[in-house]
Structure formats: C-alpha cells, structure tokens
Amino acid sequence: MYTKTNHRVLRRVFALVLAMAMVTSLLAIRISAATADFKAPEKAMTVDKNLITVSAHSQAFLLPEIIGLTNTTSRNTELPDVFATNAEDAGPATMCLNDAQKTAILGVFGSNINQKPNPYMYNYFYNAWATENEKDLTPVGEYTMSTGIGNMFSPANAANAGGITDPATGMEIPVSIYLKQDILLGCNPRSEDGKTGYTDVIAAYNSAYKDTYAPYEVDYEMSRVYSFLQNLYSMAGVAHEINDQTGKTWRYSDPTVIAGDVEKYVKGLEAYVMKKLKEDNRTPEVVAVVDTSYTTKMRQSGKIANNEWVLNTSECSTQRTTSHSRVAEFAADTTTNLADVLGGDLIETPGDIQGVNNNFYKATSDEIAQNADLVLFTDVTMSTTGEASDRKITEFKQNLVDTLQDTKLVNKVDSLEMMTSAFDCVGSIGANSVENILGMAYFTAYIYPEYLDQFAVAAYWYNNFYHISSASALKSTMASNFATSSVREAAGNRSAKNLDYDKAAVEAQIIEGMNYYENNRSEFEDKLINQNGETGENTGWVIDWENGIGAEQREEPAPVEPETRLNGVVKGPDGKWGYYVDDVLQTNYTGIKNNDYGWWRIENGLVNFKANGIYKNEYGWWKTTNGKVTFNETGVFKNDYGWWRVEKSKVNFKANGIYKNDYGWWKTTNGKVTFKETGVFKNDYGWWRVEKSKVNFKANGLYKNEYGTWYVKNGKVDFSYNGTYQGKTIKNGKVV
C-alpha cells in the first residue's frame, strides 16, 4: 500500500513502503548483448508529454518499462556519460554508436523493434547516430540521462551527485528530478521519520523555484521473485492514481493487466511443470546449487575439506548481489535441493566476500555424484562464452573425480549435466534482481526440457513483457542475448539461433498450469516460494480470469428453467449446474451426462466448466472443452492416462497412424501415443521418421523399418530420390 503524508500546504510527498531492502546491495556488474547489432534511429522522436515519467535508480530501471511507464533516466546508458556544467551548453551524453548498438536496453526499448519505444531512450540512441553523422542532436530533457542514477546507486548519492546547473539560480539540479519526473523509483532505505535521500533536495528545489513539486517516492524491493511481482502491482497502482489526478498515461495496455500477466507467466509455467511431474509419476530432479568461488575460499581457509563443496538454497546463500540465492530460488519448487536430501548442517563462517558473514550448506564430492541429477552454479547469472562454460564443467568434473572416496562413482560424475551459463540481459545482472521473473521460467525450462522450451518461454517474455512485436526482431534479439546459454542434452537441437517460438503454445501451457493450480490449490500451500519467511496468503495466487491471459477460457451453458422435479443436467436451487435424479444431486457420479444443450463433464454431481481433458462414459472416451463435448474436435489430446487420438471429440481406440496436434505429429497405436515408438511409419501424407512416437522433421539420413532402409529428408521418406547416399545405392527412396 502507499500512504500520503502532508508536509505543508500544496506540498505532498507520496511514499510507498514495501520493505527495507537496500538497492545498494547490488554490484555494478555489466553484461550486455555482445553480439547484438540494434539498428539506430536516424530521426529523433517527439516526446509525448502526456506519458507518466520515472527516474529509476540502479537495477530498478527496468520495472517501469515492463508495465509501460517511461524512464527518463537509465543506468545502462553510461558509456560514458558527460554533461556540461550549465543549461545553455548542456548536451547529450557522449556515446559511441558502436557501443550504443550493442546496448540491449537501447535496442529493446529505444528502437523501432519495440511496440511503442521509450522516446527518451529512442532519442539517446538517435543522438549516438547523429553525432557520428554530424546531424542535429536532441536538446536536454528529450533524451535519457543517467548521471548519478546507476553507479551512484542510492537516492542520497544520486540526489547530491549534481547534473545540470541552472545559470539563473546557480542551483545544480540532479538529473533524476531535472524534468520534474512523476515517480522516483528505488528510494529506500528510508530514515525512521520516513525521509529519503531526496527529501532535502526537493525542499531546496521548491524553495528556489517557488514550486510545489511533489513526486511519488517509491521504494523498490528486489530480493525475491515474489517481491518483484508485488513491485509491479504497486507501481501499476501508483500509475493509476497519477492517471486519475493528471490524465497522464502509459505506453502499452493497462499496467495492472500487464502485471497480472507477468504473475500468470511465472506461476502458470511453474504449476504446469508440477502438473506434468505428477502426471508422469516422476520424482523431481535433485539439484546441487554450488558456489565454486566460495568453495575455493573456504578450502583455502581450512574451513571445509578439499572434497567438500559449498551449497546454496533459496533461504541460505553465500551470494552478495542479493540476500538470497537467485539460482536456488528459481529451482526451489520444481526440484529437490541436494541440501534437503542430505539434511546437511548449516555452517556460519566469517565472510571472505566483502566482509559479510555467509551461511551455507556443504556436501562431499561423493554426495554430489551419488545424489544429484543436475548441478547449477551460482554464477550462471553471469553469461559466459562456450569455451569458458566447457572449461568450467571440465574443471569441476575433474575436481569431483580427484576427490571421490568411492571410485565407482566416476561414471556417475561423467553423466552429470551442469548449467554454467544463462543469458545476456537487458539489465546489468543477468537473471538477477531485475530479470529474475524471466529467469525463473527460463531455469525451469532448462531443468525440464521435456515439458518446456527454455528459448520459447524466454521469447514469450521478450514478446509480451519487453514488447517486441516483430517476429524477425524477436528472433534476432533472442539469438544475440541467448547465444551462450547452456542447453541440456535432452533438449536436442534447441537454440536461440534456431528459435521455435509459438506464442499460442506457450500461452496454452500457462493456462494449463493456471487451471491445475485452481483445481489443486492444496498442493501449493507450502510449495510457493515464501515471502520473508512466510507462506500461505502472502504468496497465495488468486487468478484473474477476467483480464489478460486466460480471460476467454471459461464459458457456461445457456440458462434453462428448472423442471418441477429436477432430473438430468439442470440448474439447481443453489444456482449451480449439476446432475440430478428426482431432485437429488448425484454427488457420487467420477463421468459425462447430457441435456438439451450438450454433453457435460460431471464431477461429484456438479458440472465442471473448467474441465479440459478426456473423460469417459458408457459410450466411450470424450474430449471436453470448458466442461462440454463439442463433437467437432479432432487431433491428439491428453488426459491423466496418456495422449490419445480423438476424432469428432471421441477417442478412436482403433487409430493406428500418425496424427498432429499443436506440439507435433505423433504415432499412435490403438489410439494412444506410447512415447516409445521409433522407426519409419506412414500416414495419408507419406512415410515419416518417428522418434519416441514423434515425427522428427529435422531427420535426414537412412532409417529402417520392416520394409527396408529408406532415404529420409526433413523427416519424410523421399520416394523420388535415386542415387547414392553414404555409400548406399538408393532407388525410389529405398536402399537397394
């Protein structure tokens, strides 16, 4: 919540206090898209004065851009940043065009690839081009400024860092209030009386100019994923109040709806994976989150043995950039942390990193090799080159092998997969305090490539929350920012360069996860990542089905007047639709019943209008959508027992062939996808290479079935091919 405090007549400073998390805990680590080549604007943009403006400190600068508020300052435009000392001579920051084109924040939010670019970033980008081409530059106040915003971190430093000197008064005005921005974001820590670093500066400004400038001073809680979600909602609330008071507005759609969609993205994908694990009766992956740097320090100091490693959990971290381990948090709910498996002792040691005491768990090399399915390194938030990643894996595995007590575990070490590199980022610290929400979905997809595509879920984020609408621009940006990302062996040939992104498919997974959460809330009570040590209502998720993702997912049957005596599927006295026999609700009925409006899925006697699956009655197995059998759905659909060939909404248990759905083409046997069949099979469109029941359209080569060996091109037998291939003679697509 935010509160209003009256300081004097016509002067109000609005304070929104979320938590006392210090923005100054961040490190100024620079990561940019090294291979990006964003096209610079060659014409300046007119600044829309009707936009809500923000000065955002340090890592907070990205939050407003997600919900469509407009930064006039930006940390990542310091390349370098040079200002004149007076308003008459003040010019734009000096930036090399080559550097500007490689700066993701400018490319994503300050160029034409954005749905509606930030005009201040756009003009800054333009100025870099104009400088090299000797064109007119945009004036002060119409491009993004950064002095005192990024490297100075805190509001107190930023407020006193100076910026532009007004020759009329001699007052040096910080760039963070030079344009009288509507919101100052990232204003914590506060003193006990609620003052921020800007309190005195704003008072001095108002005194000098006889003004009543009273911006919203908003704190920024960045320590956890759920804190960031709360930040989004809070900022959206501030934006609406400003809109009500002044008529100023935002660049995209309603910021509250965008904030809600971000929450659905995070929790929906997480719930989707939890649903899939349950459906497959699969034990979650055991993940070791290892801090190799701190391990070295602790070994050198003699606090741990040479065969022991420092482990992090979401609640116990050696990390300095945040109060919790971001990597462990990403994997907290969909995996089992090795520290929990071992029940290891918590160690508190004198800190060797910036003088901070650090808690950690520890595990031996044997315990990691014996129990872990996957190793995540705490420094994967820093994207590295492929060679550096390979070298880290090689060194880590060799160290494990060298320190094993049980040499029989050597082969287990060799099979361990390790994520050593995440992604370059728009912010300064990859997958950390700003892009942590993207990071959660991305890491979850990396851990479970069978369920999610790590590049597709990242592309969905860039498409919908970084507002990149052009398909070509999306692919290009993904290819640059995710070029060095680690990929699991099970992910096959996936890469950012070969992006296979289907917005509808990702959104369908989000909605499926949302529905699963709605129907299985008890499973999530202690599953959601806790907020400040508490679970339950603080992290409870109330799905807004009326707005944003999933808004169109529910529909009810046409109303019908109840009969004198209730029989069949009708509306009962309580207003709920159910299956009645002589006025008695049949609470014991697990099936499908019909009325004049269709066939309906009944659960415990009531129509489940959220049912989307395959269910049976005495006439067969039926596909339902929003609780209803439409009799017009054909494809491959799933229920708790597997994936099935459905024709006109009914499972065809005699179907033996290859059929498609949104996720590919699938081989079915007796109507079911077994996920085990590999070979060359046919349907009405040809003969196809199938691997684990799915057509592999990237298959090229010679493959066998019971009729011979066949030449396959792009997944399909080419019966027109005659010649030689791999030393074999081919005639009409078949090896002679």
Q: How would you portray this structure in words?
A:
A six-stranded mixed β-sheet has the order 1-2-8-7-3-4. Strands 25, 26, 27, 28, 29 and 30 form a six-stranded antiparallel β-sheet that branches. Helix 9 (255-279) packs parallel to helix 16 (436-447). The chain has 736 residues and is an alpha+beta fold. It has 19 helices and 39 strands.
Question: What's a concise summary of this model?
Answer:
It is built from 19 helices and 39 strands. It is globular and about 90 Å long.
Show the helix and strand layout:
Layout: E1 2-8, E2 11-16, E3 53-56, H1 62-66, E4 70-71, H2 97-101, H3 104-109, H4 119-132, H5 155-160, E5 163-165, E6 172-174, H6 175-178, E7 183-185, H7 199-209, E8 216-218, H8 225-246, H9 255-279, E9 286-290, H10 292-300, E10 308-311, H11 326-330, E11 336-337, H12 338-342, E12 347-353, E13 356-364, H13 365-371, E14 374-377, H14 386-402, H15 410-415, E15 417-419, H16 436-447, H17 454-464, H18 471-481, H19 503-519, E16 568-571, E17 577-581, E18 584-585, E19 592-595, E20 598-603, E21 606-607, E22 613-617, E23 620-624, E24 628-629, E25 635-639, E26 642-647, E27 650-651, E28 657-661, E29 664-669, E30 672-673, E31 679-683, E32 686-691, E33 694-695, E34 701-705, E35 708-713, E36 716-717, E37 723-725, E38 728-731, E39 734-735
Parallel strand pairs: 2-8, 3-4, 3-7, 7-8, 9-11, 9-14, 14-15
Antiparallel strand pairs: 1-2, 5-6, 10-13, 12-13, 16-17, 17-18, 19-20, 20-21, 20-24, 22-23, 25-26, 26-27, 26-30, 28-29, 29-30, 31-32, 32-33, 34-35, 35-36, 37-38, 38-39
Helix pairs in contact: 8-9, 9-16, 9-19, 16-17
